[in-house]
Structures are given as C-alpha cells and as structure tokens.
Amino acid sequence: MIDFDPNHDAGLAVDVFQRLEQIRASSPPIAYAPKAGGWMFFREDLIQKAFSDGEHFSTSLFNAGAQSGAPDMIPLCLDPPENGPWRMAVVRQLTPGKIKRLEGFVRAKAETLIAPIAARPSCDFLKEVAEPMPISIFMELMGLPAEGYEEFRNLAVQIISPEGLDRNTPATAAANARIIEILADLIAQRREEPRDDLVSSLIQETVAGEPIGPRELLAICYVLFLGGLDTVVNAMSYGMRFLAMDAELQDSVRRDPATIPGIMEQLLRRSTFVNPLRLVKKDIDLEGITLKAGDIVWNMCGAASNAPESDTGGPRHLAFGGGYHMCAGMHLARLELRVLYETWFKHIGPFELDTDEGPIMAGGPTMLIKRLKLRLNAAN
Ligand code: HEM
C-alpha cells in the first residue's frame, strides 16, 4: 500500500517525471494506492500484461458514462475480440502512407507558427505553437473547413484544457455538445458529397461486412478528436521542455538535424505522460497479489519505461501504450513532432526555460503540462 495521490500530489505540479520516479523507486512493482482508487503498476512487463491480456483487463471504463452526453469511445472502450474490426477500420485511415499526404500541410503550419517567433526574445510555446498546430492539423485530417478555425480552436481549447477534464462544467459541456454537432454535420455533408478526406473514407469502411452506423461513426470521430489533440499538445511541450533544459542535446541536433527522429523517440520516452487505466474484469494473481474483478489499475507507463533497470534501452517505449489499444494515431503524432523539431531548429537558436514563469504540470491518467514559456537565443 502506498500513500500517493496521482491526481493531486503537490510534487507532480513541479515535475511529474521526477516525482513519479521517486514514487516508483520506493514502491513495489504493484502497489495499492487508496488515493488513486486502485492499483498502480510500475513495471513494464506488468503493464504489457494489462495491455495484452483482454481476458482479465478491460477498457470498458472508457465509455459514454465517463463523458456525460458524449458518444462511446470506439474503439477504445471495446475489449477484444469485439474491438478488432473497429480498430482496423480506424487504423486503415491512419497508416504512414495515408498520413504522408499531410506532410506539406504540417510543414506549412509549423513554418507559419515558428518563423515569426525567431526574432523574439521569448515565447509562450504552449499557447503559440503546441496548441494551434495540432488543432489545425486535426481539422485538415478530418476535412473540416479552415474558415471554422477560430470557433473550433476555442471549443477545442476549452475541452483539452486541464479545467475541461471535468466534462460537467457548463462551459465544457456546451463546448463538447458543439463539437459533437460540428462532427455530426461534417459526417452528414460527406455522406451527401464524399471528398478525399478521412471522414469520407470512414463512411466507405465496413465492420463485419456492414457499413459503420451513424452513431458509431460519430463515436470514432469523437475519439479521434479527444485522442489526437491534448496528447500532441503535451508531447510537443514536454519534449521542448526537455530540450530547453539540455543545451548539449540542442547543440547535437543543430550539428546534425538527421538525428531528429531518434531524438524525438528519446523525448517521447522521457516525456511519457499517459497512464492508461484498466478495469480488472476477472480475478487474477500477479506477483503474489490477487487483483479482484472491479478493481482499477493505473499503468504508470512513464515511470516504467524510464526506470534505470528498464530494458527498453532501444527505440521501444510505452508513450503510445501497447497491446490491444496501442495508439492508432502514432504515425500522425510522429509526423507532427518530427516536423515541429525540424522547423524549430531551422529557425530558433539556443533556448532555455523562462525561470520567472516556469513550467506548470498536473498529475492524472493524462499528466498535463499547463504552461511552457521559453527564452530564445539565450547565451549558453
Ligand atoms: C504524441 C501524441 C500521442 C500520444 C502520446 C498518444 C497516446 C496514446 C495512448 C497511450 C493510447 C492508449 C490508451 C489506452 O491503452 O488506454 C492511445 C490510443 C489512441 N490514440 Fe493516441 N496518442 C497520441 C496521438 C494520437 C493522435 C494524433 C491520434 C489520432 C488522430 C490518436 C488516436 C488514438 C486512438 C484512436 C486511440 C485508441 C486506439 C484503440 O483503442 O485501438 N492518438 N494514444
């Protein structure tokens, strides 16, 4: 049993990764945390088991009940084997080949956001780059018209902000309802007039030989919206935070930009911020402990894949989860991150954290970074 609250622990607000490493190092690999309302898994093999053993571990806790008024989280809320055909329908739309066509748009967006910052002494990286970039890219991916950007950005920011995690506040519930309306309109338009975009392709998809129904289609689009925005905002901001704290790493990227894909994986590992939850659906014995049906498990991915004794020294890490629900959008996420770093290092000289207004972080199943201000062209 450990006395640790992964949602509200004060140390997490300062540095989620340092604090979790402290907790991991002083805890058994499986610990019961009453303040977390369940078990915490700190070791990689145990986490892989939770991700890959569909007989004992379920994602059914990610359903409509958890998000008032929102559609089910398909394919995330479905257990194997039911999830398989739904997941395949989504994954087929997000293959590296399909994502490649977005590269020009992603690069142009990164240029527009980063080039004007280059001459400035400081920037609010989270607000000026990490937030707008994935929102525009999501709109392009889905086929949402660019003229709706301002409204969509305001709604998305409301929903993905730390306050927005409570879907029941009136402002967030209203934003959520409007997003669902926008996605439903888009689906209706593409049914009438298909185009070369993700929603039109999803309409053509079949699951078990049947076209995807309207409710399920909306559910999938909603999961892409929720899954593909705050995660990228966080990955960009945490990655940039590590770079801002490491002048040597910055120099090495400047000397050889071809190393960016490898460094991006390193940064993804160091900044693994999703701790996916699972529901135990059948009693199971692990490490001499019996987990009971109905128990909740927190899979502490960042702590596990950065543990000194971790064997994931290579490019493998748990930033995108694993097993039956491994991130369906990882090729898009990697494209966005690679282009971000390439464009950033093309325009921006040495940079460091703004220590007057340092980063602010928060715990939870998704550990958010809430502020990242940078000083640019710093002498180092
Ligand atoms: C760096 C950015 C991202 C990170 C760190 C990330 C992380 C994750 C993780 C950890 C999971 C597994 C959740 C679980 O097992 O409970 C997941 C699932 C998922 N992600 Fe991502 N994600 C990112 C970007 C994206 C993007 C850009 C999209 C789509 C446009 C996306 C779509 C999804 C979907 C659809 C699932 C559910 C897959 C399934 O249930 O089969 N993600 N993501």
Automatic annotation (TrEMBL):
Top-rank lineage group of the source organism: Bacteria
Pfam families: p450
InterPro entries listed in its UniProt record: Cyt_P450, Cyt_P450_B, Cyt_P450_CS, Cyt_P450_sf
GO molecular function: heme binding; iron ion binding; monooxygenase activity; oxidoreductase activity, acting on paired donors, with incorporation or reduction of molecular oxygen
Keyword Metal-binding recorded: yes
Keyword list, A-Z: Heme, Iron, Metal-binding, Monooxygenase, Oxidoreductase, Plasmid
Family of the protein in this entry: Belongs to the cytochrome P450 family.
Protein name per its UniProtKB record: Cytochrome P450
